[in-house]
Amino acid sequence: MNKPVAPEEFDYGPLYAAQKKVYPQKVSGRYRNVKWALMAVCLGIYYLLPFVRWNRGPGAPDQAVLVDLPNSRFYFFFIELWPQEVYFFTGLLILAALALFLMNAVGGRVWCGYLCPQTVWTDLFFAVERLIEGDRRERMKKEAEGFTLQRVVELTMKHSIWLLIAWWTGGAWVLYFNDAPTLVRELVTFQAPALAYIWIAILTATTYTLAGWMREQVCLYMCPWPRIQAALTDEWALNVTYKTDRGEQRTSLKKAAELRALGQPAGDCIDCYQCVNVCPVGIDIRNGLQMDCIQCGLCIDACDGVMEKIGRPTRLIGYDTDINIARRKAGKPEIYRIIRPRTVAYVGMIVAVGAVMLYALLNRSLLDINVLHDRNPVAVRLSDGSIRNAYTVRLLNKRGAGRVVTLDVNGPANAAVHVVGMDAVSSGRPEIVLGRDQTTELRVLVTAPAAINSEKSIPLVMRVTDSAHGDMASATDHFVAP
Amino acid sequence: MSDHEGEFDKATGKTTTGHSWDGIKELNTPLPRWWVMTFYLTIVWAIGYWVVYPSWPLVQSYATGVMGYSSRADVAIDLANLEKIRGGKMAALGAAPLAEIEKDPALLALGRARGRVVFGDNCAPCHGTGATGAKGFPNLNDDDWLWGGTLEQIEKTIQFGARSAHAESHEGSMLAFGRDGMLKKPEIETVANYVRSLSGLPTAKGYDANAGQKLFADNCASCHGDAGKGNPDMGAPNLTDNIWLYGADEATVVETITNGRNGVMPAWIGRLDPATIKALTVYVHSLGGGQ
Questions:
Q1: What is residue A248's predicted lDDT score, i.e. its pLDDT?
Q2: How far is the C-alpha of B248 from the C-alpha of B242, rounded, in Å?
Q3: Are A376 and B130 within 8 A, CB to CB?
Q4: Res A5 pLDDT > 60
Q5: H or E segment to which residue B81 belongs
Q6: A70 CB within 8 Å of a chain B CB
Q7: Counting CB atoms within 10 angstroms of each CB, which of A133, A276, B36, B72 has the fewest?
Q8: Taking Cα atoms as reference points, which of B215, B225, B229, B223 lies closest to residue B185?
Q9: DSSP codes joined into one string, A63-131
């Protein structure tokens, strides 16, 4: 039962917790190298991709990846997407989510540890900080000492470089929305549109704040993935794990040597805190799998270094599963199972969605027709008794060149077709000139003789044909009588 | 904080808030300070908003804010900008000869778009939103034109109207043959049957076609023509086609001959600028009935 406790007997604790500052220590090793390599690849792609050229012919943008907002076009190498094809982006998002689930099923939060932009940029900012202010101990000492001239100089340098990186990040962002070389020239000469400067400012501010100041706080408080991930993970996923079966009981190096000399068991963990010191989110991995862990593997590198020095086998901390800890304790061999129903299902879904997208992409038409029957009036009776229906027809020419198409209308017998404003005719069919990469709206009038069966609506097919390129598109509608 | 009825929780090493539900106590897990600061900042931001932008309702009016911002003024600016953007294009439309507009896809699109909107604002009350007309108000989608259906004729009709107060208005009136005593009731019935027969409609039993033809030639042919084909210069409708402005049944035709019909279309010149009238002309012409 609750015993009443006098207020002075305990501390209520702070109402608001101050941020615990993390001073990650430098580390080297396999996972650190992987992180450096991935950082180079990711940042290299991000910063340089806008400058990659792609020839799409005269009059078309020659930037490989371009989001052309004013003209509502998206260019990605050989692909050019129109606004009505945004479902490809939906497909990409589904693929990304599935890939994230798959990564999680195989290797836990590897995304967080290696590829997440927050991780990549924070890692870069850490590197700058370490270069200028020194490693963990030095930084902690300097921070405790307060401001000296040298520290002011160092801090100014650090923040300047951070801001420079952040500014470059924002600068690269806007290059995806305009011709990169032109925009760079405009930016330098202050001729660029205000919107470009505003976006650079926004991304500079967010990069500087998120990667420089908020760091692990973003992962802990702002990112939803740790919560979702906790619900998706299972006992087979490889997670950065402290192998308690090997590490415990923790003892000092000396004590462990004595115990082993006597033939008694001793844990490999010597409680050196290297794994904690290098952790960018400031956790102790030895407490087990926890939500805060981004699984970057730096503690593995740190622990391996120590194990090598004290002559014990490496991988006291490593990618492992709880199953294996239990199995080793029970004297059974370790098992790893990457191919299991969950991963097979994710791969299957990824392949299926990818195949559907690829099919849609390869079969997308470069010529499209949309037909809208006039609603007011639906039909008009002319002075000689014949019946006319009007249609608003929209033709989409997604080819990067102008072309001429002919319009066929297959509907009521002996109907006459007229396109308002178009006199050109090719073998009796209206001929329409389409500009490159644009839509054209036509008013098409179909007139049927009075004798048609006016009881019911008559199916009508409009077909445009570009015989020069072999493209064809058609749409179905109806012809009705008044 | 001393008003907390909390206690120390041994398992977690934290204090509780003192709140308890079904024996489960809530731990006091403090928010991060930056989070709280952000929250306070949003409050400060909100107060700043009150100062800068209009917000509080007052008894007679409202607090306008130091910026004097008004979304209505924003709309006015947007509209002015729109006018500026349109200006050049509308000028091009106004300068282009009528015959050229439909041949230029860009001008045709502009004319139709602008014409549709202006039509909805000014013409739809009589002619209907789809220009389908009504009894006494011509359907503009068909190919029957009282005053002519070429681009020039349509423009003229829109500019000056028909039987309007404008000096250049179309003139021409259908006489009230019955009311003014020019024809007697049986004569009117006879000529009505004759007129219906011109467009192939059935006639009443025992009606004298020869008498009808003579009556028509004496009274109607001067405007409607010998064959009843009408005359766009006088707004005299074609009586041989299937389109009837007021209706084709015998009673309606008798009524028309007895009392006359003189529908009025107002003049739009002066109310709409020339370029807009051009756009309207192109729109109406492109509805499909234009000649």
A1: 85
A2: 9
A3: yes
A4: no
A5: helix B71-95
A6: no
A7: B72
A8: B215
A9: BSEEEETTTTEEEETTEEE-GGGTHHHHHHHHHHHHHHHHHHHHHSSHIIIII-HHHHHHHHHHHHHHH
Residue in chain A nearest B99 by alpha carbon: A421
What is residue A233's predicted lDDT score, i.e. its pLDDT? 87
B240: phi > 0 → left, psi -120 to 50 → alpha, else beta; which?
alpha
Kindly list the distances between the CA atom of residue B57 and the CA atoms of A163, A352, A455, in Å, as whole numbers in the listed order.
44, 57, 61
Which residue from A243, A279, A159 is spatially nearest to A207, judged by alpha carbons?
Answer: A159
| Token reading at A192 | 């660029």
Helices marked H in A108-221 — which ranges?
A: 110, 117-133, 136-145, 149-175, 180-188, 194-207, 216-217
**Residue B1: which pLDDT band, with cuts at 50, 70 and 90?**
very low
- What angle (nearest 5°) sits at the alpha carbon of residue A55, between those of residues A49 and A60? 100
- Provide mean pLDDT across the span A219-235: 88
Going by pLDDT thresholds of 50, 70 and 90, the confidence category of residue A1 is very low
Who among B28, B108, B144 is closest to A421 (CB)? B108
Closest CA to A286 of A271, A298, A297: A271
- Share of residues in chain B with pLDDT > 90 (%): 74
In angstroms, how far is the first alpha carbon of chain A from the final one? 86
Which residues on neighbouring strands pair with residue A53, listed in sequence order? Answer: A63
A423 to chain B: closest CA residue: B103
Which pair of structure tokens corresponds to residue A155?
Answer: 């801090």
Pairing assessment for the beta strands A416-419 and A403-410 based on DSSP bridges: unpaired
Distance CA A104, CA A111 (A): 8
**What tokens appear for A331 in the block?**
């004297």
Spatial separation of the C-alpha atoms in residues A414 and A416, rounded to whole Å: 7
Taking the C-alpha atoms of residue B187 and residue B185, their distance in angstroms, rounded to an integer, is: 5
Q: Which residue of A has its CA nearest to B4?
A: A12
Token output for A464: 């445009």
The string of pLDDT tens digits covering residues B210-246 is: 999 999 999 999 999 999 999 999 999 999 998 999 9
Cβ separation B32–A19 shorter than 8 A: yes
Q: Select from A344, A343, A350, A352 the least CA-distant residue to A107.
A: A343
Cross-chain residue pair B2–A382, CB shorter than 8 Å: no
* Closest CB from A5, A19, A423 relative to B34: A19
Chain A's closest residue to B133, CA to CA, is A377
Between CA A252 and CA A258 the distance in angstroms is: 10
Q: How far is B278 from chain A (nearest CA, A)?
A: 15
Report in angstroms the alpha-carbon separations of B133 from A206, B47, B278. Answer: 60, 57, 21
Q: Which residues contact B128 (CB under 8 A, 6 or more apart)?
A: A376, B134, B137
Burial class of residue A392 in the structure, from the number of CB atoms within 10 Å of its CB (0-12 exposed, 13-18 middle, 19+ buried): middle
**DSSP assignment of A326-350, as one string?**
HHHHTTPPP----SSHHHHHHHHHH
Which two three-digit tokens encode residue A233? 């993970």
pTM score, two decimals?
Answer: 0.75
Task: Please say if the pLDDT value at position B251 is more than 90.
Answer: yes
Check if B106 contacts A (Cβ < 8 Å). no
Q: What pLDDT digit, counting tens, does each position of A369-393 carry?
A: 999 999 989 999 998 889 999 999 9
Q: Using CA atoms, how far apart are residues A336 and A459, in angstroms rounded to an integer?
A: 62
